[in-house]
Amino acid sequence: MPARITREDVQRMTADGAVLIDTLPEGEYAEEHIAGAVNIPVKKLDRQATAHLAKDAPLIVYCYDAD
Amino acid sequence: MHDYVGGKADWAVHGLPLEGRTAGRRRAIDVARKDVRTCGPRERLGDVRERVRTAGHEMCIVVNEREIVLGRLRRKEWDGDPEAAVEDVMELGPPTERPDPFLHEVDERLRKVGSLLLTWYGSEEDGGRLVGVLFREDVERVLAENERLPGGSGLSA
Question: Is B12 within the bounds of a domain?
Answer without folding.
Answer: no
